[in-house]
Amino acid sequence: MANSRSSEAECQPAKKETRVLEGLFHLPASPGEQPYLIGSKCSVCGLVVFPKRTFCPVCEIDKPMDEVPLSRKGKLVSYTCARVPSEGMTAPYLMGTIDLPEGPRFISLIAGEQDINALKIGMEVELLIDKIAEEEGHDLIGYKFQPVKKGQGGDHK
Amino acid sequence: MRDTAIIGVGLHPFGKYPEKGLRDLSRVAIWEAIKDAGISAKNIQVVYVGNALGGLITGQEAVRGQVILEDCGLGGRPVVNTENACGTGLAAVRGAWLEVASGMYDVALAVGVEKMFIPHNTAKSIRALATCSEIELSRSGFQYVTYYAMRLRAYMEQYGATLTDLANVVVKNSYNGSINPYAHRRTAFTAEEVLNSRMVADPLTLYMCPAMADGAGAAIICSMDMAKKLTSRLPVKIDCCTFRAAKFSPHGEYDDPHTFTLCAQEAYEKAGIGPEDLDVAEVADAAIPMELILYERLLFCGKGEGPKLIRDGTTRIDGSLPVNTSGGFGIRGHPLGATGLAEIAEVVWQLRGEAGPRQVANPKVAMVHDSGGVVGYDTAACYVSIFSK
Ligand SMILES: [Zn+2]
Q1: Domain interval for residue A55
Q2: pLDDT: is B109 or A8 the higher one?
């Protein structure tokens, strides 16, 4: 996913600046690497949160949390299709609520399917880094999740 | 804390007013409230003005309250500008209440105003609304209707609520709105019409979601002692105004006890009542069917029993606990800063017996719930107030 994106960018040099939603995920530096979301882990109570936080919301003590890479696969808790776009978006687009095994629950755009009927509560989804919106004429790169296709689940890690 | 009361309320009708600015909407509501209270404007000692998105929508980023009050002829007083997303109106009311309850002042004015409707640019309004969250989320296509759509889909799966249940909340509230002259939507919909309106965020259809509306509201808050001296109006007592942001929990919005429940429990305790004592309630149905979940969170019923209250008519105007007799957020309209003031106006009218065709039979105790924003996948600001006569 990430490879095809970077080669695409090389084909259209300097047409537009690409912006990245900073601080939420690790972009692969080399072709063999996988992207991952960046969470925070509390060294006292073990809580893992996403997006990252500086201090633990449970312990409420002056001890910064540690940045940790999060699992690339999670579970779809709920989903919808936005039929009216927000600024910078092209409707329709799918959105989901994602649970990661480390604990965080959060909202993400859903890729890889156009049809909402293909989505099911409880299905396995995996991370990809992709263009998520147009922002003042620039491509904004962020994270999405897509349903894990049967037979494609074992090709990483 | 001393006893306080609301002695006057006023609204500018909610709807689409592209030709009107924040000042135009506010001045109507403010002077209506002053007239309603039957006091002189000179009695007002302090003002709280709630507005959330004026900077993004109109460009008036700062000193919004002062700009509004100067136009109204009400300068020269302490003015506090408040913002708390969809809870902005109650933020203004709570501040004004504290000024009076603490004994600092005797008479306070709370104002809430919002411009939401931008002709031919709903996307800009949606994006402005989405900034009531962390900026990474609002930059990633997040919009509030998708948030509620996902929550309701999970609720349907968990408790067996049906699409018809969702639609019937709209049937109830749109009937209420059809007899409220201040409501944005004035049409009573059938369940069929609700379900057949175009899909906005599955399973939510157009009529289940608030349309972008402008509006303003105002309330005069007064010490109980001063109320008796200033006006012959029935003072509506403010029993409490609880408020909190969500405390972290792993699944946020989905976890129990929800912030709304904690806030409601605190409100019941402070007012010395239970949910069974409520006669009427205005709640924050930012997507109309969310009312089903709010019934549970505000302890009107047990877990999973929300649909029962719609099926058996409990929350209709003629039911045992009428909810959103004004039409609620989705029907009356939800201009963020103005919404809380419209909720308060409705329960004041109900408690005074002035709600006209929407009048509930002899109500004595009312709840206003207002909430807004998303931080850490949970509510950023929840307010629960109890009023009585
Ligand atoms: Zn901790």
Answers
A1: 15-147
A2: B109
Judging by beta carbons within 10 Å of its beta carbon (0-12, 13-18, 19+), is residue B59 exposed, middle or buried? exposed
Residue A143 covered by a domain: yes
Mean pLDDT estimate for chain A: 88
Residues 6+ apart with CB under 8 A from A97: A76, A77, A78, A79, A105, A106, A107, A108, B150, B154
Model pTM score: 0.94
Give the Å distance between the CA of A97 and the centre of ligand 1.
Answer: 24
Strand B199-201 with A105-110, pairing: unpaired
Per CATH, the homologous superfamily of domain B4-119+213-237 is: Thiolase/Chalcone synthase (3.40.47.10)
Of A81, A84, A105, the CB nearest to B122: A84
Indicate whether A7 pLDDT > 80. Answer: no
**Residue ranges in chain B assigned as alpha helix (H):** 22-37, 54-58, 64-72, 88-101, 122-130, 135-138, 144-159, 163-178, 191-196, 224-230, 259-271, 291-297, 306-311, 328-332, 336-352
Pairing of strands B236-244, B378-388: antiparallel
Q: Is the pLDDT of residue A58 over 50?
A: yes
The parts of chain B modelled with pLDDT lower than 70 are none
* Res A4 pLDDT > 60: no
Flag whether A157 is in a domain.
Answer: no
Report the distance separating Cα B265 and Cα B315, nearest Å: 20
In a domain, A153, yes or no: no
The correct answer on CATH 3.30.70.370 for the domain covering B141-209+240-388 is no
Q: Do A103 and B250 touch (CB under 8 A)?
A: yes
**Interface contacts (A, B; CB < 8 Å):** 113
Number of domains in chain A: 1
- Identical fold between B4-119+213-237 and B141-209+240-388: yes
Q: What is the pLDDT of residue B141?
A: 82
Largest CA distance in chain B: 56
Select the residue of A24, A77, A83 nearest B154 (Cβ to Cβ): A77
Q: What is the pLDDT of residue A1?
A: 40
* Of the candidates A124, A133, A106, the residue with the CA atom closest to the CA atom of residue A52: A106
Q: Is position A60 within any domain? A: yes
**Is B142 in contact with B156 (CB distance < 8 Å)?**
no
Domain ranges across chain B: 4-119+213-237, 141-209+240-388
Instruction: Convert the pLDDT of each residue in A72-88 to its tens digit.
Output: 999 999 999 999 988 88
Question: What is the C-alpha to C-alpha distance for residues A126 and A124, in angstroms, rounded to an integer?
Answer: 7
Question: pLDDT confidence of A11, banded at 50, 70, 90?
Answer: low
Percent of chain A at pLDDT > 70 equals 86
Distance A42 CA to ligand 1 centre (A): 5
Which amino acid, A46? G
Please tell me the distance between residue A55's alpha carbon and the centre of ligand 1 in angstroms.
8
